[in-house]
């Protein structure tokens, strides 16, 4: 079973915005995210995904293509340039990235399934989450 990682969708105003940002790089075939340290468990991440956190919720995932040194003492996390929607799961914000075990990863949403969080304003979603309603 592959190991995954989580990361905050920094700067994204909504899940739709994150999806658009990733899709922008579709022609390049990958998106590169900079990280200071190479994960110690990098071998376990073959076949894994980067799960995106937005408004304290895991909203989707992007398959990990691999890791690469960028020549400036840092590394790139290479991911596919699309967002696969997953069933929303609350997740606290954190800096950088964190490991996510397969057993804790939320399931993908099937074809035709939708998560209303994608179209809900961030503030409303945050308020509903604080009340435990979503």
TrEMBL record:
Name of the protein in question: DUF1489 family protein
Species this chain originates from: Sphingorhabdus lacus
InterPro entries (alphabetical): UCP032025
Pfam families: DUF1489
Lineage: superkingdom: Bacteria
């Amino acid at each position: 079973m592959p190991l995954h990682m989580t990361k905050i969708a920094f700067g994204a105003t909504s899940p739709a915005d994150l999806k658009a940002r990733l899709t922008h790089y579709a022609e390049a075939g990958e998106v590169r995210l900079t990280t200071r340290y190479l994960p110690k468990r990098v071998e376990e991440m073959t076949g894994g995904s980067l799960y995106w956190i937005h408004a304290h919720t895991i909203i989707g995932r992007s398959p990990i293509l691999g890791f690469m040194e960028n020549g400036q003492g840092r590394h790139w996390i290479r991911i596919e340039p699309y967002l696969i929607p997953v069933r929303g799961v609350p997740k606290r914000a954190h800096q950088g990235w964190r490991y996510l075990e397969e057993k804790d990863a939320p399931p993908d949403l099937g074809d035709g399934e939708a998560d209303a969080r994608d179209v809900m304003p961030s503030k409303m979603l945050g308020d509903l989450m604080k009340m435990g309603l979503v």
